[in-house]
Automatic annotation (TrEMBL):
The keyword Transmembrane applies. GO terms for cellular component: basolateral plasma membrane. It comes from Nothocercus nigrocapillus. Residues 10-435 form the Major facilitator superfamily (MFS) profile domain. It is found in: Membrane. This is MOT6 protein. The chain crosses the membrane at residues 12-35, 51-71, 78-97, 103-123, 135-155, 167-186, 255-275, 287-308, 320-340, 346-368, 380-399, 411-434.
Length: 479
């Protein structure tokens, strides 16, 4: 039978996490709809305008380690509600912005950080509320992203037509405050040694006691090694939350992190520039907004299927190649936009792109779990998200600068294809070479293994009197 945390109120929490993912991860999909209006009102270039969605998405990914500290100190409920408050206040403030720089701070940084807190703390809460059905809960929660991708663009276009982008952002602030309601649903669940509501006591850091002693003595330190101890504590914390040691030692993690970081330079470009490109090419605004919703709608069905497919035993140890195939399809699909900008052709592009994005989204963190040991996954994820957020930040503005110079939106899709395809090929060939090297190493060790097995068989076939010799060999074997 399911444990007490796998039933009852746990399913209400799951519903709250589905809503959280739709509100937070689905939100950046609608920014492209406001691109032309923001550009016109602020008299900005493509590069300047694209900094807004870039900052939002980058902070949404990069705030992971900070969210982890927040959850550890105060619990998931507090982090989700704080995130809802920040994201709502950020969007409300953005409706009063008079410059793009102010928009970068309010809707970009503040709202992005709030969305990060709500999303990541919400996903973390599932680990406490579900044990037996944790995999099912995570799969169901991910459908919230697809729902958000579908509904946010439709709502954005309707509100933009009715009341303009400023009033729309004001309403968005109110909608995002519902993250606080989702956080409130995460009421206390008492586990063996953990409570979601009771903040966890911070672990004693090296040098903490000495630091308190120093303050009590008016700043004079009775121990000369207090400062080195504090520096060691900070280094240990960085090492814990940013897995530099894993990056240097684990070749698979190294290849995957570099590949995904490079891929993110072009991955987000279609989401930001597809609607402006369609409008620029003569597609009506309401039809252009529909394109993003098509991507989200198909995601609802394809993402779970991709997750089920990758779970088959055949793909065990081969998920990286499935991920590379999805990335390759994503990069190649961009050439459809270059061929024609007719609405029917763009719909075909969105269908193919959505299939590819579903594969990437379903496998992105699953492959990371495959290449990193679970006890180091949390810190490896922190470094992984920070590095990819850097390229997510600089990719769109650089491409926007290229469009400003050339006056040709086709370069958006050329650039996206270059980065995504090259990253897919790099990861596929690198992992193939790594696998071949591993097999050669195993083959070179095979004779030694066979001789060991032969010696073991000889020992097992000895007479009982000889087998009862002093267990010196046992100690050698254990070493």
């Amino acid at each position: 039978a399911a444990g007490p945390q796998d039933r009852g109120w746990a399913w209400m929490v799951l519903l709250a996490v589905v809503l959280l993912q739709g509100l937070t991860l689905g939100f950046p999909s609608c920014i492209g709809i406001f691109f032309t209006d923001l550009q016109r009102d602020f008299h900005a270039t493509n590069s300047e305008t694209s900094w807004f969605p870039s900052i939002l998405v980058a902070v949404l990914h990069a705030g992971g380690p900070l969210c982890s500290l927040l959850v550890k100190r105060f619990g998931c409920r507090f982090a989700v509600m704080l995130g809802g408050l920040l994201s709502g206040v950020g969007m409300v403030s953005s409706s009063f912005c008079t410059t793009l720089s102010e928009l970068y701070l309010t809707a970009g940084f503040i709202s992005g950080l709030g969305m990060c807190f709500s999303f990541q703390a919400g996903v973390t809460s599932l680990r406490y509320y579900f044990v037996r059905w944790q995999a099912l809960a995570n799969a169901m929660a991910s459908t919230g992203v697809s729902l958000g991708l579908t509904l946010w663009p439709l709502l954005s276009h309707y509100l933009l037509d009715e009341m303009g982008w400023r009033n729309t952002f004001l309403i968005f602030g109110g909608i995002l405050l519902n993250c606080c309601v989702c956080g409130a649903i995460m009421r206390p669940v008492q586990l063996a040694s953990t409570s979601l509501v009771q903040p966890a006591k911070p672990e004693e850091e090296p040098g903490r006691e000495a630091e308190e002693t120093q303050l009590a003595n008016g700043g004079s330190s009775p121990h000369p090694n207090v400062q080195p101890a504090r520096r060691t504590a900070r280094f240990q914390m960085l090492k814990k939350y940013l897995a530099f040691d894993v990056f240097c030692e684990n070749k698979g993690y190294q290849i995957y992190t570099i590949g995904v970081t490079w891929m993110m330079l072009g991955f987000a470009l279609p989401h930001i520039y597809l609607v402006p490109y369609a409008i620029h090419s003569g597609v009506e605004e309401h039809m252009a907004a529909l394109l993003i919703s098509v991507i989200g709608f198909i995601n609802i069905f394809i993402r779970p299927l991709t997750g089920l497919l990758s779970g088959l035993s055949f793909f065990t140890g081969r998920r990286i190649y499935l991920f590379c195939l999805a990335a390759l399809l994503c990069g190649l699909s961009n050439f459809i936009c270059v061929i024609s900008a007719k609405f029917s052709v763009l719909i075909l592009y969105c269908v193919i792109l959505s299939i590819a994005i579903s594969g990437i989204g379903a496998l992105l963190f699953q492959v990371l779990m495959d290449v990193v040991e679970m006890d180091k996954f949390s810190s490896a994820l922190g470094l992984f998200t920070i590095l990819e957020s850097i390229t997510l930040l600089i990719g769109p503005p650089l491409t926007g600068f290229l469009v400003d110079i050339t006056r040709d939106f086709h370069y958006v899709f050329y650039t996206s294809s270059f980065f995504v395809i090259s990253a897919a090929l790099f990861m596929a060939f690198s992992f193939c070479a790594l696998e071949r090297k591993s097999k050669l190493k195993e083959a070179s060790n095979a004779p030694l293994d066979n001789s060991s097995k032969h010696q073991c068989n000889e020992i097992l076939t000895e007479p009982p009197s000889e087998r009862q010799s002093p267990p010196a060999e046992v100690h050698i074997t254990n070493i």
